[in-house]
Records
---
Amino acid sequence: MSNSINSPHFQDILFVGCTHGDEQVGRYVFDTYSCGRNEYYQWKTIIGNPEAMMLNTRFIETDLNRSFPGNPTGTYEERRAHQLIPHLNQADMVIDIHQSYSTTPDFMIVNDWTPDIEEIDHYTHFENIIVLSQGVGTYSGLMQIEIPHATAFEYGRQLDMEDARRRVQADIESILNKKPTGIKSKHFAFWKDLPLEFKGQTEIDNFVRLTDEQRKLFGITEENIYPTFIGGYPDKWAVLLKVI
Ligand SMILES: [Zn+2]
């Protein structure tokens, strides 16, 4: 394929669906974009965690997106991560499609802010982007840490499948056809966990900046702090993001 001056730095896109088996919008991506090519890219889709997808459950033994780089003799997901790595490495750009359990606005997770990511950002509707190289908080084992050219697209409101499907489709179509959306994004780093002890003392919303009062209540002096993953984990109330 010839490169025009406006060509992206990448041409092979690998979509991954159902890295979490209950995020079934990945199955739609697998069915609709299993493989293809156009004047800009070639692409294919694989299923991250097929066993969990068939059982419509997040994982079998361990969370696949906490199991990278994997282990050939480990849990089902550690073995699966190990098996996936060469496939993920073969692509220029990996787009791992997730659905969020909560009513969070859609967001993107990237390893680093690179020209390729900037290119992707032009074509997607995400207003919120988490950049892992600026801080990972308490996370480890993420595909997006192990594979620097892997991004995660997170679609909120999990139970509204129809709507999630429409938003995923809109993003994939604009990427594949290089149609800029003109949406500007805000960038964040994972910062700290918000302990369970504060739960119920005030109302917080995903990607809505903490007020001065809330920061005082939580004992936080940093100013631009945003909560996310509210109520998503048994050991913390939310994860806090810092604007970068
Ligand atoms: Zn997920």
---
Amino acid sequence: MKQLIQLCWSQEQRERPAADRVAFILTRLSDKNLQTQVVADRKLTEDAYARVALDQKQAQEAEAGRVAQEKKQAQEAEAWVALEQKEAQEAEAVRAALEQKQAQEAEAVRAALEKKQAREADAMSALEKQQAQEAARSFCTACGAKLSGGKVCASCGEKI
Ligand SMILES: [Zn+2]
């Protein structure tokens, strides 16, 4: 374009281009400029599409990140609940085992005590029986008089 202007202002008559030649060159330059503009417009449009696509991608990534975070938090909360349940079950098992052990010990003590009392009652009964036998040998069963060791009662004559 600058070269064309210089040629048009040239001192030499024969160097100045004819009007149709100037028109041809200007037309060509205009077409080229138009093509450049179209390419620039297309690039702007493509950039705008690319920006929209990038915005959408970033929004999708942010949403995916948010969903993943929520899922992780929910899983952590579930894990906490499960842990608390497990601890409660373990505490309950320990309590039940302790109660059972205490009940068994109490039962063992009660049974041992009963056995001991039964043995003592037997011993007492045997002692009473022995005392009764000794009394029967010492006194006459018929008249109640004290015996002196003979085969018959000295008081009533009853056989011993
Ligand atoms: Zn007698």
